[in-house]
Amino acid sequence: MMDLGLQINVSIDASDPDIAAAMIVMQAAFPAEFGEAWSAPQLAAMMRLPGSILAVGRIGDAPIGFGLLRSIAGEAELLLLAVHPAYRGASHGRRLLDRCMTEAEGSGAQTMFLEVRAGNPAIHLYSKAGFRQYNVRRDYYLGIDGNRYDALSFKIILGHD
User: Closest by alpha carbon to 112, among 147, 142, 154?
Assistant: First the structure.
């Protein structure tokens, strides 16, 4: 399925309305039992840090996904990537990930890192995009039910054609 209607807006302004759009997706996309969703104040605080970039995908006026990354000193970290459940399976996640990688590379990053909870379905997306796992942090995440989950660390060397 083509996603020709997806428009991605990139923001480096903490007061930007894209924060509110990202929060709509965040609340729908992150399962509550894992406690992974950020609050609006956490997201706004991250956006005040140098090198933070928020990419929000919309179809029409509807926010359908976002990516949050931070680039500094030749490295970038993908902090969050989410697609609203109603819009999954249409390559929106891949387009958002690709845009985040392009933004990271444009900021001078040569390597991009991310961490993800073991068992997260997004691992497939990251692997297909070329990310490779290099570490496991045992019992790193604590779910709201008290269960612990491993964190898997991934990285990719960004291409410089």
Answer: 154
- Overall average pLDDT of the 66-83 stretch: 96
The secondary element (H helix, E strand) that includes residue 42 is helix 40-47
- Tens digits of per-residue pLDDT, 8-37? 888 887 667 899 999 999 999 998 888 788
Q: How far apart are CA 22 and CA 99, in angstroms?
A: 16
Q: Which residues of 6-22 are buried (b: 16+ CB within 10 A; e: fewer)?
A: bebbbbeebebebbebb
Separation CA 120–CA 114 (nearest Å): 13
Q: In order of start, what are the domains of the chain with their CATH numbers?
A: 6-157 (3.40.630.30)
